[in-house]
Design goal:
Keywords: Coiled coil, Transferase. It comes from Methanobacterium formicicum. InterPro entries: Galactosyl_T_C, Glyco_trans_2-like, Nucleotide-diphossugar_trans. The chain folds into five domains: 35 residues, no CATH class; 226 residues, Spore Coat Polysaccharide Biosynthesis Protein SpsA, Chain A; 73 residues; 86 residues; 249 residues, Spore Coat Polysaccharide Biosynthesis Protein SpsA, Chain A. The protein contains 25 helices and 21 strands. α12 crosses α13. The radius of gyration is 36 Å and the shape is elongated. The N and C termini lie far apart (91 Å).
Amino acid sequence: MITLFLFRCVDSMKNQEKSNTYPIRTSDQMKYLKSILNDSQFKISIIIPVYNVENYIKNALDSIVRQTIGLKHLEVIMVNDCSTDKSGKIMDEYANKYKNFTSIHLHENSGAAGRPRNVGIENSTGNYLMFLDPDDYYTEDACEVLYGRIVADNVDIVFSRYVYVFENKIQRCHSIFGDLDEIKVKKIDEEPGLFTIPPSVWTKIFKRSFIVENDIRFPEGIPAQDLTFVVHSFLEANGIVYLNNRFLFNYNRIRDSKGDKGISRNKNKKNLMGMIQAYHKTFDLLKNYGKEEFYPTLFKGHLQFWMDGFIISNTSSIEKRELLETIGFLIEEFNKYDTELNKRYMTLLFNNIADKRYYDAISLSEIIKNFIETQNKLEKEKDDLQRILDSSKNELAEHLTFTGYIKYKSKNIAFRINKRFKWNIKSLYIKLKNFFVNTKDRIFKLYIQLQGFNPSIRYDDLTLILPYRKTNDPDREENLDITLNFFSKIGINNMIISEHSDKSSKDYLIKKYAHLFNSFRVCTVFANGQLFNKSRAINKGVLESLTQYVAIVDVDCITKKENVNRAIKLLKKGYKVVHPFDRKVTDIIDKKTFQKKFDFHTIKTTVQNRPWADGGIVFWDKNSFINIGMENENFSGWGGEDNEIMIRADLFNLKQYRIDDTLYHLYHHRPQKRTQNNVEQLQKTRQMTKELCLDEINRWPWVIEAKKRLC
């Protein structure tokens, strides 16, 4: 493309050739070209990249026409990036109407604002450069204020704050500089806090000679290119002024609320990947200038902004992993500086990504996304309720005025209408109150979900109790092996296998599994030919444990590491019983595949609803477990003991929590037949009051013995 700027240069060269004064040496030629730059008829060149903005561009262009500096001092360069709507036609109309408006149409879409802005720079002739996005607009004195300061102070960059324009309000952008009137520095090193301001190129005025001489350009074809441009200019600038108390630009957010998002606000894989490319280019700039110490200051906001976009994106799991692997280096670098992030869940995400735990990071992002979507929906419902409430209150006020006038004629009618209004308003207040209660509950549930990915949670205060009797069933022995290796892998420190058996397997178990745990013990209650008494084995293990919390784990049940984390956090929050599943069970049939990496994604079986499921794995505050009578040793054989102790937990109002997940069950065949004794014991407890239950458990010999040991 032969640009307007080159046309002007060529014409000047021809004139010089005619008078035999055109410089021969290259250095003299560069000086001559610089003199052309400084001999412009325009004070400011305003560059506008355009793509599919037919509903907004006129407002942007009209804000330029109204500038108090005088339109004659402004050169307006509009660059159309192959719009498919009427944007190009509108540009041409303004170019035909105003001689200092130039309309340029690219032949191929570049996909982002970088290329159109660079074309605008190449074709500019003004002494200073400004930019404007075609869906935003200037205040009437924007150009005059910025031009006046950059000329008066003879600096390279001047910029100000802006306001967000919504449908029903205007909101000032945040500033870290409080009430300071302005910040003026010779070099960016004097105030790195300027890097924390959003890199909105459209809030700034630049010396054009400064941009040209330092070859500062926008990366092309990717979003976030303004970040790279602004950082490059800040690193090179000799003189920057920030007008902290001037608001000269209007940032249009109405477009977002109507679902008409610009290219840069679409959070798909291409856009997110493009942002990473821009971040890498910006990071390389810092390295090239030897300014890596600015990295956390500059990137704290940008990496969190990218992560917010990643969370709400509709990218697939494969795309999410690719994105996280690509941005991983930047987050690893950021974590080296130990900088506190604005949102707690961001810290969990950053840590998982830096440690290359991409599966955990993706799972965590999906939890947060679900919460955000639900919260947005409920916030809308709340706003709708508030509007109805306000409307009803206004109607009631009007009605009371009217009924006061006709009270003596229609007292009964007025009374009934008043009653109806007041009842409606009361109902709305109740709904709003329930909304806030439910919101508090959802926030707590999100907090607990996030704790599943908290790497700082330790397992020192937890002991797993596994009731066991060795059998000739190879499935059961295989399940024991898988269960112990799984819990070792996720970091469990303390394990007790508690036997109820005629013959102890202690030596065999210690030899095979003791190396998996920091503390591994086997305790044995001899059965003397009796049926397997799971309750007796559990109680023995609990009393042998040395930690504040215990988890009772069946030999064939496992749960995700995240749920262990959540359970510990809930116990520390004052819950006494935590179930790592909500009455749902998933069989692991292909155990060999699962065991290779303990990858829950390999489990293909259907989740089963089990309304009666109370056992499998249960986390307890140990003292609470003992105080409600422990497991009922009157049970023997299979079944019912888990349900019975939960009846007692309910009778004693123990604080309980069920994590919204499934219990994973290592499949094996078993005849699920309860003994008649167990059925009777279960029914007996169901019929008890709290007082009768307390009297009963205080007579149980194993409870008496346990309390003696604790004393």
